[in-house]
Amino acid sequence: MGLLQLLVVAVLASERRVAGAAEVFGNSSEGLIEFSVGKFRYFELNRPFPEEAVLHDISSNVTFLIFQIHSQYQNTTVSFSPTLLSNASETGTASGLVFILRPEQSTYTWYLGTSGIEPVQNMAILLSYSERDPIPGGCNLEFDLDIDPNIYLEYNFFETTIKFAPANLGYARGVDPPPCDAGMDQDSRWRLQYDVYQYFLPENDLTEELLLKQLQRMIGVPQVKANALKVVTLTANDKTSISFSSLLGQGVIYNVIVWDPFLNTSAAYVPAHTYACSFEAGEGSCASLGRVSSKVFFTLFALLGFFICFFGHRFWKTELFFIGFIIMGFFFYILITRLTPIKYDVHLILTAVAGSVGGMFLVAVWWRFGILSICMLCVGLVLGFLISSVTFFTPLGNLKIFHDDGVFWVTFSCIAILIPVVFMGCLRILNILTCGVIGSYSVVLAVGSYLSTSLSYITLNVLKRALNKDFHRAFTNVPFQTNDFIILAVWGMLAVSGITLQIRRERGRPFFPPHPYKLWKQERERRVTNILDPSYHIPPLRERLYGRLTQFKELFQKEQPAGERTPLLL
């Protein structure tokens, strides 16, 4: 019997240990959520508001706490009191509060909730800081909270902008905070610096589980520095607002670390995340990325580009149509987008029509005038445009000097013009290079309409800058992950194969075809003077058309009966 009692006690003890370990995962149905400093907590929030949260056993050397709660796209609210007040609560997908502790205080209570109908899966954590650490958002003058550690994020098709409140110097419990604008010397908050970090989630993954897991890498100062990319460092004199290029459907997490260079201490703001799209149903939602019109347009464009990549120099007129299509389509899309509010699908259709007209016009110019230099200038400028776009796609494009539109466009144009100038003495090589590089890149654009790839932003960033007057201030960092390496390898393979094939096939042949109009005139004169030529006896075009029309009319005429119509006389 004693052995049985021991077994029962052991089972009960093991159940308690399991329950304690599972405390990090759970829901808020009990009405009270207990937290520990530095430990992540997963739970669900349900209506009605609020649920009470509590932290016990706060260390005496902690002067303030930062609580933050994250969800994927549903809003949650964190508040100092059960009653929601604008200056005492924060609502969003990434919400945080700063808890300033009183002397001898070892327990803190606050409240959580959601106004949504469906339950919200959340991840939350508490971080502790000492009196030497700067206080994120401690000198807030723009937002509702007195001390606001949150990063406010806005996005549109072109750019994503983050804003945050300036920090203040740390101070001990029970001491008045340092004044924010009393002076600008080294003993004030003006000595603080702000490092802005950016972290990319894996491409083509919009799951909630992945986001909440990856957010753990952007919470504390050591994790942010180890995992994220530092984009820019701001001083207290700079504006606390930074813009980035929007990446549709790509998860990105932003955070700011405030650093006190005098004490060499740091603190992290509450990170914010975005996919540059909405999880709600409707146009532009994350679930409907990639319009059908874009897929059709870029697929047809890629088929033509693939043909040009391998056979463009041989089929010279087809290549000229391709080049004219690109030039006219690009400028026409910019024009109608800036001047008209019509929908994207209509934009794309009109762009395709205008591009086709531009392509036929360039072919007609070559056929009638046969000026090789004009055609090769267009070909070289298209290659120069792509090379210039690749140049600014690198970290060079994020230099502060190129945030000025004048400097950017002058430099961009010079690089684009330099390409046809450099290859002026070897036009065939220029033409074959353009066929291989531009034709293969059209395949990359087609892939980008089906899968998320950063390589499509090589030209899209230039288009955004031409369309939006505020895009010059945006940093154009993009992720470079497994998909991008594969597509880059395919792009390089197609380009090298197309260039090599055309160079070998065109060896020993004329550099370019002769003037079509001159050939046509010579052929026409030969037919007129040479009676033995069978084409000499072919009627003129007008007579041939009239004959065809007569034959077509006869199809609708009633057939006349054969034989005598009048009766025979006996």
Automatic annotation (TrEMBL):
Biological process annotations from GO: cellular response to unfolded protein; negative regulation of programmed cell death; positive regulation of insulin secretion
Gene: TM7SF3
Annotated Pfam families: Ig_TM7SF3_N (PF25992), TM7S3_TM198 (PF13886)
Keyword Acetylation: no
Native species: Rhinopithecus roxellana
Membrane topology qualifier: Multi-pass membrane protein
Signal peptide: 1-21
Protein name: Transmembrane 7 superfamily member 3
UniProt entry keywords in alphabetical sequence: Membrane, Signal, Transmembrane, Transmembrane helix
Subcellular location: Membrane
Domain TM7S3/TM198-like as annotated: residue spans: 299-503
Transmembrane regions listed in the UniProt entry: 296-313, 320-340, 346-367, 374-394, 406-423, 430-451, 485-503
Gene Ontology CC entries for this record: plasma membrane
